[in-house]
Design goal:
Distance between the termini: 30 Å
Structural class: alpha+beta
Strand order of the largest sheet: 1-2
Shape: globular
Length: 146
């Protein structure tokens, strides 16, 4: 199921997947995902063992979005699943592509005080556009396939 989801994501992305960062859930530890990543040259990394807060920020944002759209009630009827899938697909396109977010530029420590400097908010599509335009990633090398 995970491999099918990654294939679906690969079909809609305008670039190749270079790496997948997952948590330590058993769904991500299977041989099928391992071989899929190996065959395509995709780097697969996992969060640190016994550090369950590694994925917390992503899940917190996703959870807040889902709760805002659907509410806190539990949907138990089977007919809800396809409708929710369709809703999430449409919402994902809007949220992942057009909702601006801040990107951390630098973080400095002055004693106990931490100062963070953020770039102006950009949508993920704007960030991708500028990364492709400049062609240089954070570490000085091209991070997107040309």
């Amino acid at each position: 199921m995970i491999v099918q989801a990654i294939r679906a994501v690969e079909r809609v992305l305008p670039f190749a997947i270079l790496g997948i960062d997952t948590d330590n859930d058993s769904a991500f530890k299977g041989e099928a995902l391992y071989h899929y990543c190996q065959d395509r040259g995709i780097d697969q990394t996992r969060s640190r063992a016994y550090k369950k807060s590694d994925q917390a920020w992503v899940e917190q944002k996703s959870g807040a979005i889902v709760r805002r759209m659907v509410g806190y009630g539990r949907l138990r009827r089977p007919f809800a699943t396809p409708r929710l899938t369709e809703l999430y697909d449409q919402a994902r396109r809007f949220i992942k592509g057009f909702q601006p977010s801040f990107k951390l530029i630098s973080k400095t420590r002055d004693g106990a005080r931490v100062r963070k400097q953020y770039d102006s908010p950009k949508t993920p599509w704007e960030q991708l556009f500028w990364a492709c335009l400049v062609g240089v990633g954070k570490h000085g090398s091209s991070r997107l396939p040309g």
